Amino acid sequence: MARSMHENAEWKYRGEGNCSLVVADPETHQVYRLVKTYFTQAMETLYPLDSSEPCCDHIVMEMRKIVDYVTNVMQPLLSPKFVTPPVVAEISEGFAEEAEKTNQDMRPASRRKKSVDLVDVRSRSALVMPDFCFVSNRDSIPVELEESQPTISIEIKPKKAFIPSPVAIDRTSIKHQVCKFCMHQRLKTKAGKWPETSHYCPLDLFSG
Ligand SMILES: Nc1ncnc2c1ncn2[C@@H]1O[C@H](COP(=O)(O)OP(=O)(O)OP(=O)(O)O)[C@@H](O)[C@H]1O
Ligand SMILES: [Mg+2]
Ligand SMILES: [Zn+2]
Q1: Mind listing the pLDDT tens digit for each residue in 137-164?
Q2: Helices (H), the chain
Q3: 63 lines ligand 1 (CB under 6 A)
Q4: CATH level 2 (architecture), domain 12-146
Q5: Domain parsing of the chain, residue ranges
Q6: 134: Cβ below 6 Å to ligand 1?
Q7: Distance between CA 19 and CA 39 in Å, rounded?
């Protein structure tokens, strides 16, 4: 565990996915990635809990795996200049509930309905990392504009850029011809989740 949290911060909503809700401290320019129930449920399905083991210990172990992955895989591949590994930090009791409650209006409607989207209040830790909605190297920005200019942050999601070839799948199966992302796109459009499928295919990104 490292880093103590800034107790009186006004936590700002940064975004969320299936696994976590992310809030930022505007003073320290750090974000806290809080785990959702979806994450802990998936974790418990994969590694059923031993009754002597508290759930929060398990969550910390999973967070450490993420830190290890970023440190040992992402950073050497992409350079320390661009990759800052997160830190596992202790969070105070009630913080997760408070961060979720005060940011409720910022969240997409679809995320406010399901129980899996609730922050898991049993967790006593969060992954802390720099807030990428803040540019630290602002040398090129005139001082008078510094505070008033918003930062536009772009997340690039390449998705899974390969077709898996397990022997268990019949060679003639569609799963050997179409990537998982494209299959999911069709499924989501059919289910009415998106109005149309994306024209992006992850295989194209690496096709040259
Ligand atoms: N360091 C950061 N700075 C600013 N915003 C962030 C940062 N990390 C995450 N976010 C925002 O929070 C959202 C959710 O974070 P993240 O993608 O890590 O969680 P997730 O989608 O639940 O998990 P995963 O992507 O691992 O399945 C991101 O899409 C992004 O909008
Ligand atoms: Mg995500
Ligand atoms: Zn594809």
Answers
A1: 666 677 776 667 777 889 988 898 888 8
A2: 37-46, 55-69, 75-78, 95-102, 143-146, 180-190, 202-205
A3: no
A4: 2-Layer Sandwich (3.30)
A5: 12-146, 158-208
A6: no
A7: 5
